[in-house]
Amino acid sequence: MRGLSDEELSHLTMVFRQRLAEGASLDALLPEAYAAICEADYRVLGMVPFDVQILGAIALHQGYLAEMNTGEGKTLVATMPLYLNALTGKSTILVTANGYLAERDAKEMGPVYRFMGLTVAVGAQAKEDGKTTNDEKREIYKADIVYTTHGGLAFDYLFNNLVPSAEDRFMREFYYVIIDEADSVLLDAARMPLVVAGSPRVQSNLYEMSDFFVTTLIEDEDYETKEKAVWFTEKGIKYAETFFQIPNFYSKEHFEINRHVNLALKAHVLFEKGKDYMISNQEEIELLDEGSGRMMPGIKLHGGQHQALEAKEKLKLSQETRSVASITYQRLFLMFPKMAGMSGTMADAWEELLDVYKKKVLVVPPNKPIQRKDLKDICFVHGADQFAAAIDEAVAIHNTGRPVLIVVTTIAETELVSRVLMEEKIPHSVLNANNAFWEAEMIREAGQRNAVTISTSMAGRGTDIRLGEGVKELGGLAVIGIGRMSSIRQERQARGRAGRQGDPGSSQFYISLEDKIVADKKLKKIQKYIDGKRRISSRRIKRLMDKIQALGEEQAVLGRKQAASYDEILQYQRDLMYAARNQLLDGGVLPTGTIMQIARDNIRHFLRQQKRLDIHQLNRYILDNFSYRLDREGEELSLEDSRGVECYLLSRVMNGLEEQKKKLGGKGQMNELIRAATLNAIDNAWVEQVDYLQQMQFAVTGRTSAQRNPIFEFQKEALNSFREMERRAKRDIVRNILLSDVYTDEKGKLYIVFP
Q1: What is the separation of C-alpha 247 from the centre of its chain, rounded to a whole number of angstroms?
Q2: Using CA of residue 193, residue 196, residue 200, residue 201, what is the dihedral sign?
Q3: Whole-angstrom Cα distance, residue 374 to residue 380?
Q4: pLDDT of 546-598, one tens digit each?
Q5: Which of 30, 152, 385, 571 could join 124 in a cystine, given CB atoms 3.0 to 4.6 angstroms apart?
Q6: How many CB atoms lie within 10 A of CB 486?
Q7: Pairwise pLDDT comparison (129 vs 76), residue with the higher score
Q8: What are phi and psi of 398, to 5 degrees?
Q9: Any idea which of 69-78, 94-103, 261-270, 464-473 has the lowest mean pLDDT?
Q10: Across residues 678-703, what is the average pLDDT?
Q11: Alpha carbon 102 to chain centroid, angstroms
Q12: Which letter does DSSP use for residue 171 in this model?
């Protein structure tokens, strides 16, 4: 490839595409295509991929999740499989953890793709007004290669399936995706479904009352907790029934009380200020990303949980909205025929990734042997001693000129360490959700001589810490971790910030029995050591902490599996509804025979519900569903003869169809009305269904106290509500066709006002 001119090299893209069109496979093209893009990387960027980077790139094309150490150049690795797969002309996407990284990577790598004759776009660019039109999105997704965020892609997928007409669709069919920081996306972000909010709900007055009720509960008596779950005891249920003066806490008619109380209980027990959320400007709840500690502006908890948090913090309640569409990352990425990912830490979760995503993890060796020294954990009983020792060590290392990165688990701890360093008059940077705007700058400077950086979790930061002049000779970057983290992966991510590309460095964690992951368990056997009633060795502390961390990781896996199970149930329904929508958008229309069959089903359901049909009920049914006019024939009917009533009502339907057709002046416009009426009915019914199931998901988790399987309960409710949704959609299809006010303008454009 080196012997080719620039024109000859870039012309290869056309040659490769021609060979694909003639039947060659991507695997057969891979050696030449990778060689071509490697040469383009060198000519355009001045960067030559290492052999291990090419190995990682082959793994990504073959659909592996590739573990590559921090600093191994994953951004450059992605150019090879993205180029190869974009040759197909199909959708080729790279998703990463945040908008900054998507823009940065597209900007840095874009010139290479353009040199080779491909188009590249960013799907996560922040516009001043924050809005991107469907036409702009269509241009983005039309590009050969798209860089975007996992959240942006998920919401675009949902919005693409809410468009009112075929012309408004903007996404291409999914084909190939690479997920950067894959474990952060596929695991850490996988528990929370992404929800598109719609019209506001009628605001409930139960939030404040439920919040007050929850503050009167006693742990282990009225409720029990285990990891990310909380439920009422029998005593707690009886107390709730007494407090709200209701006979059965779990009966259908008291669903709203049950829901609000469960939301309030979760807000107080499972959500911690400074770890799960923070309050910005003293008036708004801002969620924090569990993996990276970043704020997630604009994202709200669904199903009323956000309002429950606001009630807990005594803030003004924001408007609760309906959920009109939702999906989890598990479901989203399983839709891609080809999916791959890369991250610095995935091998520890290989079993879960294989189980959920059917993907194997391949560990790619580093380009240069790792020189970093990972020192043994130093164990303490008390947190005060742990913090003092860790900060003393950080100060001692800083005094030698070596850069220090102090990693803690919460925002409050970053501020605590910062105060101590200020007292010691040591300049430092604090990287947490409060100042994430300066994140890339802080990380870039973190490897300079005398630099001290305090940070929450280092997951998904995407920026290397490069050593400044003379730092290698001093021993490289020193990572000091304070507190046992919730997963081994997070600890490895922190350690991996030192020792990139064979640099020297060190890492050491300071842990204690008062660390958050231990405190959350409230284990009585540990309290005796903290109180000083019993002595404990460092080795025993380490074993105990390892066990608690492993247990926490198991619970997190179960939580993610449960979230996936809920969404799998919803996915069957989502597939059916989206397929029906797409068929209608693409010109499909219900034939008259099908409309009459739907009307017959509706009429029979109505007649079954009437114990004794009278003329008022019949007239009300006609006016609500078929026509705004009554006739003599209906008054002369024998209401005892259900067969005769059914035939009469069906004749009203047929007459109504003929009237609408006559008014519109032809079959083409009538088909347009039927298509729009069906789409409107399906959309309204589906929005109600999604919203109901979001509420139900919160409610059924409390049923574990009654020894019920929440997944089975949800499945049963989802099936029942789907049948109810079908009935509602069928009713509204006929209503929309017959009762809509329709007219056409002088240009023949159809206008419909639905009833």
Answers
A1: 38
A2: negative
A3: 19
A4: 999 998 888 888 888 888 888 888 889 999 999 999 999 988 889 999 999 99
A5: 152
A6: 22
A7: 76
A8: -60, -40
A9: 94-103
A10: 82
A11: 17
A12: P
> How do residues 511-551 score in pLDDT, each as one tens digit?
999 998 888 777 777 888 888 888 889 999 999 999 999 98
Q: pLDDT-derived band of residue 458, with 50, 70 and 90 as boundaries? A: low
Supply the DSSP string of 674-727, one letter for each residue. Answer: HHHHHHHHHHHHHHHHHHHHHHHHHHHGGGGGGT--HHHHHHHHHHHHHHHHHH
Helix (H, G, I), strand (E, B) or coil at 332: helix
Q: Is 220 helix (H, G, I), strand (E, B) or coil?
A: coil
Single out the residue of 549, 560, 558, 468 nearest to residue 516, CA to CA. Answer: 549
> Do 75 and 63 meet the contact criterion of CB atoms below 8 Å apart?
no
As a whole number of angstroms, the distance between CA 711 and CA 703 comes to 10
- Rg for the chain, CA atoms, rounded: 30
Query: What amino acid occupies position 383?
Result: G
Nearby residues of 550 by Cβ (< 8 Å), 6 or more positions away: none
Place of tokens 């690795």: 77
How far, in Å, CA of 122 to CA of 153, rounded? 11
* 617 class by beta-carbon count within 10 Å (0-12 exposed, 13-18 middle, 19+ buried): middle
In terms of phi and psi (left: phi > 0; alpha: psi -120 to 50; beta: otherwise), the region of 274 is left
Q: How far apart are CA 727 and CA 710, in angstroms?
A: 26
Residue 90, pLDDT > 90, answer yes
- The owner of tokens 């519109």 is 664
Q: Which amino acid is at 593?
A: G
Please state, in angstroms and rounded to a whole number, the distance separating the CA atoms of residues 497 and 341. Answer: 20
Can you give the pLDDT at residue 701? 63
Q: Is the pLDDT of residue 702 over 60?
A: no
Outline where 424-470 has alpha helix (H): 439-445
Q: How far apart are CA 374 and CA 494, in angstroms?
A: 11
Residues whose CB is less than 8 angstroms from the CB of residue 698 and which lie 6 or more positions away in sequence, other chains included: 259, 262, 263, 266, 303, 304, 305
pTM for this predicted structure: 0.83
Backbone phi, psi, residue 286, to 5°: -115, 125
Query: Using CA of residue 728, residue 731, residue 737, residue 740, what is the dihedral sign?
Result: negative
**Residue ranges in 465-591 assigned as alpha helix (H):** 471-474, 488-495, 516-519, 524-530, 538-585
143-155 pLDDT tens trace: 999 999 998 999 9
Q: Is a pLDDT exceeding 80 seen at residue 643?
A: yes
pLDDT score at 294: 63
Quote the percentage of the chain above a pLDDT of 90.
Answer: 55
Q: What is the Cα–Cα distance from 481 to 495, expressed in whole angstroms? A: 8
Task: Give the type of residue at 439.
Answer: E
Residue 703 confidence (pLDDT) = 55
Neighbouring CB atoms inside 10 A of 129's CB total 6
Q: How many residues does the chain have?
A: 755
Enter the tokens of residue 128: 């001043």
Angle CA(631)–CA(634)–CA(639) in degrees, nearest 5?
165
| C-beta separation of 124 from 99 below 8 A | yes
Give Cα 559 to chain centroid, integer Å.
14
Q: What's at 599, amino acid-wise?
A: A
Count of other CB atoms within 10 angstroms of residue 643: 8
- Residue 252: DSSP 8-state: G
Cβ distance 44 to 120 under 8 Å?
no
Helix 79-86 × helix 51-61 angle, to 10°: 40
C-alpha dist (Å) from residue 253 to 166, 247, 258, 535 = 41, 10, 10, 54
Average pLDDT, the chain: 88
Asked whether the predicted pLDDT for residue 732 surpasses 90, the reply is yes
